[in-house]
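[Meeting: bench + compute handoff]

Bench side (C.D.) handed over the final construct sequence. Compute side (W.E.) agreed to return the predicted structure before the next meeting so the bench team could plan truncations. Sequence as handed over:
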Amino acid sequence: MPHLPATSKERKQADLERRVQRILDDRRFQGLRGRSARRALAVVAALCSLGIVPAYAVAGSIVGILVTGLAWLAWWLLRLSTRTIADLPDRFLDERQRLLRDRSYLDAYRIYAGLIACLATVALVAFVAVSQDDAVQLVITWPQAFGLVMFMITLAAVLPSMVVAWREQGEPAELPA
C-alpha cells in the first residue's frame, strides 16, 4: 500500500510535486514552446514592461494598470512556454535545466543592473544639461513614480523567464503522444 501524506507539511510537499509534474507534462500550450514563439513572447513582455512608465506618466492610472496587466500576462505566458524552468527548485530540474536557469538568472541580473545604471546615468546627464546654476527643479508626480516602481518590479520578475525563452532551443510544435 502506498504511503499517504499524513502531516500538513507532507501534504503540501506532495501537492507541490503533483503541480510541478503537471506543468512539466502539460501539452496544452505546445504552440508557445517553439523558439520563434518564445522569442516573440519575450519581445512582447519587454515592450509591455517598457510601456508601463509612459502609460502611467502620460495616460493615467487606468491605462497604466492595463499595460502592467499585459506585461504580467506576457510573463505568465513566458513561464508556461518555458515550463517555469526559471522558477523551479533544484530538485525538480535536471543538470541541463539547472545550468540554464542559473545562467539565465546571472544574465538577467546583469541586464537589470546595466539597465538601471544606464537609466540613472541618462537621468543625471539630462539633469546637468538642463540645469543652469542648479536652478531647475525636478517634479515627479505620483503616477510617474508609481509607473517607475511598477516597471522595476515587473522587469525584475520577467527578465529571468525572458532570458530562458530567448536562450532555450524550444520544443517541437507537436509532441508525439
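W.E. noted at the follow-up: The chain has six helices and no strands. C.D. will use this when planning the next construct.
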